[in-house]
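step: validate -> pass
step: tokenize input -> pass
step: predict -> running
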Amino acid sequence: MTMTVPNILTLLRLVAAPGLAVMFLYFTRPYADWFALILFISAAITDWFDGYLARSWKQETRLGAMLDPIADKAMVVIALMVIVGYSPMSPWLVLPATVILFREVFVSGLREFLGDTAGTLRVTKLAKWKTTAQMVAIATLFSQGVFEHYFGMSTFGMDEAMVDAILSGAEEDVLGLRWKLAGMHYTWYAGLLLLWLAAILTLISGVDYLMKALPFLKDDR
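step: predict -> pass
step: emit ->
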């Protein structure tokens, strides 16, 4: 195994993936949301850098080619698991997350079954776009958790009438409830929209991989 800088970055991203869930075990919210958001964005940045450095420094290796998609899938799967687990069980969130998780498992199974012929399932530009959409959607949904819990902390001890009065403008918004609520709503709907876009791209790329694999799935007659 060749431990180049790109490979080290990929390994760090792979190790960071379970760290997303660990943040919610050792920290209270919204600090867990902040740490998970920072960790996820940092890992997403290394995803671009390790590929760029490997190509520009001519350090592309078999180890890197094997670990890179695994690290991407681990980050996405664990992040979606955390987001769904700590969010309301809305079908608008669960359905695209299910599509993404199913596709990742399905394509991984295809690659494993094809073995030496798995090279026919090379990463396409569409697959790279779906990964980018997934990363942006997940980062946006993590930021929604930050807004949600700061809003909750700011309204702690207030009754519903007081909150309504502040949001309607009848009372002075000293704690910034309006912008926190707006941030919570905007990031939620933007995150959902991006996640649905990612799910559609994920589904299309999964069908594309299946079509490429079909000739190798036929029984010899």
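step: describe -> The helical segments are 5-26, 31-56, 62-85, 91-114, 125-154, 160-168, 177-213.
step: cleanup -> pass
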